[in-house]
Design brief:
There is one protein chain. This protein has 18 helices and 39 strands. It is elongated and about 85 Å long. The longest helix is centred in the middle third of the chain and has 21 residues. It has a 9-stranded antiparallel beta sheet. Strands 2, 3, 4, 5, 6, 13, 17 and 18 form an 8-stranded antiparallel beta sheet that branches. The protein starts with a strand and ends with a helix. With 655 residues, the protein is an alpha+beta fold.
Length: 655
């Protein structure tokens, strides 16, 4: 699980700025930057918090300006790099010699007879970042100098110099604190050992974030520094700093050692090969969160929050593969508590949940299926989840929000031309970039699967709710199956169309059809399934996942790049998504005539991701890849359902 970056990569500034590290605290908060600690995104920072009383996440401490002075202050060695318009500060040379991410992100700086190690670690369950400096080799009478640079803003926004920030600092135990803005958390900075703090409030202006510039967003920011911290720093010295929203009275070294030991023990319990352990580490520490006693899942880093669809798709890989059955059940219970009119929220928020999806509720039922396969826990499902399953089926049959309703032919209809209720949900100029209103193929594959599973549970539980059982029995699964095949199957080409609407079929070749095969209950016979899989493999399969549209389609866009409008147009019209591989591989194994050959194929696909773990977000799987070779990574650096489904595949082929 040790992710090491070579000295050559550290010295190559273009490459170093593409390599990003990520630390998380188990509550949705995080720290992240490039290995040069030169921010390229507005989402980078040393302390990004998530709390119940504020929406989204907040970038509190953006970064340090930190350096070592020696030879009586005549010389210095800079530890962080800043990007300003047209220039970097400091310029070359860059003293980063090594980077590794095992228990913590660790940076080694070296020049002649100087060697400094710096480590960054978030305390689990708190909005606290600890930073450790270790003087491995250093001239006598050296000094560690640090200027904290504060942003104190929503992570989607940028800060600018203003008169509202309260610049005054106050002493606290072994440090100082301040309250930069009304309604925002306090800022506590505490230091181990001797130090001198010189208040000198000032603004650093016009930091430039290259990735935001490339993405077509505002990309310059001003950061506030409350002053300078100077710490005597000699060979063999270790310095610990705590930056937090709360003051601590505990020794910082003790806090560090306790968290380090907890992580070491946790990682020691991980099972599997190196690839599985790396993905399992991110699953356990980064994606599964606990706040206010409730477990949930962050959909990705940096800018995603708790998304229902992503959570349900991710749960088997995140929890069940690791034997964390209670965690899975608790997350299912969390979302079940928020069900409304048969809809599981697509998005959990302190500002109010969003219910704008047709498939989240159906994925919720699929996740329960997977939980049952692993646990045989009918009692837990009956007690905690069965009422929610019943609500989903009844509301979907009779009609609920967003025109979600079963038609007379048994198909499930959802949305209109102004809505985007499936996972292909990008918008351009306020309208869906990929119009899929009507009866989408995967929604109906999930609907049939949900009905079959619910019928089996109703029999098992001997449910006495006659209104429900009568309604369930009134749905003809055979009619639904026949209708689905008659309307979606394109016989001469051997695949399923994407959406049936207004009496017509969208015949685009998209990956959504694969779910009609991969679901535990499938509507199509095995000969059709095999033909479908062959089309998907020939038209959509790449080394990193399935394209969202065939290259032969005139709407196909092969590169995910440009401004937000250009990216949103490409998002589901050719861009590759790794998470789809989970269901492609499941369908492949389910229908295979030669499992040995298919397993070899799947192992080859998985091997493509081993190098990627050191190419973007270190130790993580990126959100998307270009549809065209060489399939460059894009989107966020750590997408939950990608890691979860690749992990599920790796265990699937072992069994």
């Amino acid at each position: 699980m040790l992710n090491e970056i070579t000295p050559a990569q550290c010295k190559d500034i273009k490459k170093a700025l593409q390599l990003e590290w990520l630390e998380t605290n188990g509550t949705g908060g995080y720290a992240s930057s490039t290995i040069l600690n030169c921010h390229t995104r507005k989402y980078h920072g040393l302390l990004i918090s998530q709390s119940d009383n504020l929406p989204d996440k907040q970038v509190l401490l953006s970064k340090f300006d930190d350096w070592i002075t020696f030879n009586n202050g005549r010389d210095e060695l800079r530890l962080s790099v800043h990007k300003y318009p047209e220039t970097f500060h400091p310029g070359s040379p860059y003293y980063l010699q090594e980077f590794s991410q095992s228990v913590t992100p660790s940076f080694t700086y070296q020049d002649k007879d100087i060697k400094i190690q710096k480590e960054i670690m978030l305390l689990s369950g708190t909005n606290t970042v600890l930073i450790k400096y270790n003087a491995v080799a250093l001239p006598a009478l050296s000094t560690l100098c640090i200027k904290p640079l504060l942003a104190y803003r929503n992570f989607h926004h940028l800060s600018r110099e203003n008169l509202f920030l309260r610049v005054r600092t106050f002493p606290c135990k072994n440090g100082f604190f301040m309250s930069p803005y009304y309604g925002m958390p306090a800022f506590y900075m505490q230091i181990s050992g001797k130090f001198e703090f010189s208040p000198s409030p000032d603004w650093y202006r016009n930091f430039e974030y290259i990735q935001e510039k490339n993405r077509g967003f505002e990309h310059c920011e001003d950061l506030f520094s409350p002053g300078l911290i100077e710490i005597p720093f000699n060979k063999g010295t270790q310095v610990f700093l705590s930056i937090s929203t709360d003051e601590t009275d505990k020794p910082l070294e003790q806090l560090w050692d306790k968290e380090f030991s907890r992580r070491t023990e946790s990682e020691g319990n991980l099972k599997g090969n190196k690839f599985q352990k790396t993905l399992s580490k991110s699953a356990a520490h980064s994606f599964i969160t606990k706040k206010s006693g409730q477990s949930s899942v962050v959909a990705g880093y940096h800018w995603f929050l708790e998304w229902g669809r992503d959570t349900m798709i991710s749960l088997p890989g995140l929890t069940l593969c690791a034997g964390k059955h209670n965690e899975c059940l608790n997350i299912l219970k969390t979302f079940a508590q928020h069900e409304k009119n048969g809809l599981i929220p697509n998005f959990l928020s302190t500002n109010g949940n969003a219910y704008n999806s047709a498939d989240t509720s159906l994925w919720f039922i699929w996740a329960i299926q997977k939980y049952l396969e692993s646990t045989d826990d009918y009692t837990g499902i009956n007690k905690y989840l069965w009422p929610t399953i019943k609500n989903i089926v009844m509301y979907y049959k009779n009609g609920t929000d967003y025109h979600i309703k079963m038609l007379e032919n048994g198909l499930l209809n959802a949305g209109d031309k102004e809505t985007q209720l499936t996972w292909m949900d990008a918008k351009v100029d306020g309208k869906p970039a990929t119009t899929r209103s009507g009866c989408p193929v995967e929604i109906n594959a999930l609907w049939y699967n949900a009905l079959c599973f619910t019928s089996a549970l109703a029999d098992k539980f001997k449910d006495e709710d006659t209104a429900f059982t009568d309604a369930l029995q009134s749905i003809s699964l055979e009619k639904l199956r026949d209708t689905f095949i008659n309307l979606f199957w394109i016989q001469d080409k051997g695949y399923l169309g994407d959406v049936w609407s207004d009496g017509g079929l969208d015949s685009s070749i998209r990956p959504n059809q694969i779910f009609a095969v991969s679901m535990p209950y499938s509507m199509i016979p095995i000969d059709m399934s095999r033909r479908l899989i062959k089309v998907v493999e020939n038209e959509l399969l790449t080394p990193f996942g399935l394209r969202t549209l065939s290259k032969s389609d005139p709407k196909y866009i092969g590169k995910y790049c440009g401004n937000s409008v250009e990216r949103d147009k490409a998002y589901h019209n050719g861009t590759v998504w790794p998470w789809l591989l989970g269901h492609f591989c499941e369908a492949l194994l389910k229908t295979s005539k030669d499992k040995k050959a298919e397993l070899t194929k799947i192992r080859k696909i998985l091997s493509n991701f081993s190098d990627h773990l050191n190419e973007a977000g270190i130790g993580f799987i990126s959100e998307v890849f270009d549809g065209d070779p060489p399939h460059l990574a894009g989107g966020c650096i750590a997408q939950t359902w990608n890691s979860a489904e690749l992990l599920r595949i790796s265990y699937m082929i072992e069994s």
